Amino acid sequence: MPVTNQLVIEVQERVRSEAKRRGVRWTNQRQVIVEQFLLSGEHLTADALLARAREVDSAIGAATVYRTLNLLVEIGVASRVRLGGDSASFEPILGRTHHDHLICISCGRVVEFEDEAIEKRQAAIVKKHGFQIRHHRLEIFGVCPVCAGG
Amino acid sequence: MPVTNQLVIEVQERVRSEAKRRGVRWTNQRQVIVEQFLLSGEHLTADALLARAREVDSAIGAATVYRTLNLLVEIGVASRVRLGGDSASFEPILGRTHHDHLICISCGRVVEFEDEAIEKRQAAIVKKHGFQIRHHRLEIFGVCPVCAGG
DNA sequence: TTGGCTGCAAATCTTTTGCAGTTCG
DNA sequence: CGAACTGCAAAAGATTTGCAGCCAA
Known about the structure:
homodimer, alpha+beta, Arc Repressor Mutant, subunit A, Dna Ligase, domain 1, 2 domains, three-stranded antiparallel beta sheet, three-stranded mixed beta sheet, 6 helices, 48% helix, globular, DNA-binding
């Protein structure tokens, strides 16, 4: 699922204007971090993002990455997901539709999938309980064909 | 959803025999922790379980609770769930059918639900990708009627 | 007896925060 | 200029681990 430059630029723009609207400053570090985050196009941990960002600007600190990620989540451009391990992963919400995760408990490989039927059932359940849905997280754990295959 | 003593005893027995099979010792601390865990019948954090266990035996240490919970998860009698915050929650898998969670992001209330249709779709998706499913976790976040209601 | 447990405290690990200096607007 | 940001290091919080003594089998 390659991310086009066009899309990245678009989202960058959106983040930037939203930041301005909130009186949040646009620093060079944030530029680098957001850019690397969007370009990755995949779910990645704060630590992995820090590594990527440091390839561009080696002085960037971990705290700044965390602060920026939290900002992105708040703005609604990133989402935090739990993919098993101890640390959270983040992923860009570009123009992509919502998707869930299928995780191999042996090798850690993550397959993304979408399912309209599940989304619909969820909506129905939430309605039944009178909730207003915000977001959800579906993670299926199992063994992938490679790890299982004899 | 009250938990009957009968059920607790049954599960205790199962845990105990499984422990024996694995050459795992059955100590008094484990007895207390497992008992309190099963009696709670609800999802609770390691910390909450520690508190409960200490009401029975005030000398029990946090590490023992963690070690026991991990053991229970391994044996397949408990499952670890993420209900938002920083810490994991655990819940007993008794004779109960699998269920998922609907979580209020305002007050933290957790509603459990089951949905046959979702389970079926999941099975289909997993099969399509050639995975062998082990378990899954579906958490829906939203605002409950009480918090939303004017 | 003896290897697996236990509690404690120290160690890890991820994420947040305080602070003094820096920089965007 | 001044408030918001940054990196660093320390703090915080959850969970794990090392160790010396303890105890179930």
